[in-house]
């Protein structure tokens, strides 16, 4: 039962029920032919006007708003009686859109981004809030511009490393407009500067000696890793903003999807077209 | 019970909607200082961005059928997250994140079309709103295109089916009425600005289509929401004359402290007006005009999805690489493809500027180069293998053989380009805008090639190499800078270094494009091949082509990962004003239309375009001024 109470969908229905009752109490007019424009309605119209125009409406403008409201209400009710809303593309889209908005609203009502909720989300998804690998390293490069086979050239230098001074090793690579030393750079930065996948390759290298070769977007490298800082989970305080944004995004999506899935269960979808591959038809079977 | 509860859903909707309209805009935590550490690079670093991205707040994005495009999605996409494409609903992601983004929606009717269809009083019940809803009661593609066409006439007081005037539009769905959408946009921009990681700059587009001529300008600023909320973005409905825009920028800048950057785009469809010798009113350009233009418009968008404006083969017949993504579909409704004039392309425009300087003593077109997308999808996706199209109408390969509704163009006429590289100390609003003001920026048609250019009379060959950047800044000026008459009569020297996109193709060559004004006051141009890959000594020798037309794959077995050179102008005349800019070409790679053809299983010839292209970067020019500093 406790678990059931945590289900967004249950909340959704409970809130729906409450609102239904409240709505019924405050909107007695909806079942008869009276059109009542009360104080609140007029205030609401004036407020909308104010929002749009940054000044209150004049008496004349207000009368116009009321007249238009009444006209619209009359036509609207007559249209409903004639079922003009049925199978109207605009009405369909608008109502579908409203349902989606509703999903969003409900998710913020059911699962607001309180400190408690966000913290719980952080605890559950801690892995998403890891820092990157951070490296300090030196590198030399061998490119196809200077070597028939840069891979072989790099391996040959690596074999010779014990016989070479630090300075000689530095000079053994090609002249290339790239830093020899990188200090405290994270994986994101390394891939941005050297090409996709380079940071992954660094993970395979030993620290504290010349190692490699690895391949970048520019050529083949030998690398001396001086320091590697492993990823750690960042403290909540440091990532609070990101977690909150992620939480809200996730809740909105979850809510939307849960509601849609639940509602879909009520329908049996039959697509009668040979243009659609049978693979896509399979979606119905999960209902 | 369940059934009953489900039945109540409809009622919940009613209640919830009432509360929705009453919702007040959220309080902004705009100027709240972010605590994240911002890395700083004293010798500058290139940051990649797009200054020209449109979302559903743009009337045309909405009218082309992409109502779900939002600034949020634009920012998420640009900073590297996977999003659901607003055009196709499919997941889409950049190969690597951008560093900054300007969402620059059309200021004209900003956000009003969505509000009109949401039936917001004050918009949908105005003369314009009613007329539109009458003509286009539902949002079918045909209807929305109709509104789009009418707007393009009405905005400039041309006869139109709806008999609407520009004044109607301003009064009914423009002017003050865009405030709500403007403020909502600003709040989003503030929320996504993350100094050091991802910068959002607040901006918009002023979209003048004077008699069908594209005179659009993107405008942005380094200041935050507190400043931006003090005005409503100036639109072409206020005036379609750029001089009025500059006057407004001047006045608003004084009043609010905003620092504006305005960037014109698509000179290629400006119908002879972008780099003209006369003002919009027909009077000859004078010193005052030149000074004002140079104050606000220090760069031009030289490449973007609607084509490349660097050079045209008719205007530059000796340039074998001039015919790159040429696009000449005017925004006029007659589907015209007018002949190019020298006012329509950047290189010829710079030459017009040199000539005007001889006459009036000031160059109105002394500008830097920017690339951006002008994407109308909300996604800054212009990589050839990841192109999301110009807009809804060319969002998928299968649609690209059809007309786009933009001039008489078809989907495959669009080019997958471009972005801007910015040499800045840090990835922050101010630092990035400062780089635009210095013109230390360059344009790419897609690949993120790192390009450094320095000019000086003091350089020697030894200045190249490991200390090039230090030497470049200490002895010379970077791209966008000015050189002045030397005392010793020497020719200017340039340190140029280009490094390939680490995830892209090798480089073919570096070229210097020079323009100068001869003794008769007429401007000329010449292109120098200054660095060639593969040990070639003659630029006429082509680099080759590794693209497999069946698979769309290429290899980096030709070309070079980096090229660098010290080059001195062999034809220098100290008495002639001149500009020098660098163009660096990649080896041939597949155009997106080839990849589309492979995916669709059709012959690439059906796309009407060459299967391969040589992508490129254009540096902002360094100017030589034949006067002493």
From TrEMBL, chain A:
PANTHER family xrefs: FOLDASE PROTEIN PRSA, PEPTIDYLPROLYL ISOMERASE
PpiC domain span: 114-241
Reaction equations catalysed: [protein]-peptidylproline (omega=180) = [protein]-peptidylproline (omega=0)
Protein name (database record): peptidylprolyl isomerase
UniProt entry keywords in alphabetical sequence: Isomerase, Rotamase, Signal
EC id: 5.2.1.8
Organism: Neptunitalea lumnitzerae
Automatic annotation (TrEMBL), chain B:
InterPro entries in alphabetical order: DUF3604
PROSITE patterns given in the database record: PROKAR_LIPOPROTEIN (PS51257)
Region (Disordered): 387-412
Pfam families tied to this protein: DUF3604
Protein name: DUF3604 domain-containing protein
Organism: Neptunitalea lumnitzerae
Lineage: Bacteria, Pseudomonadati, Bacteroidota, Flavobacteriia, Flavobacteriales
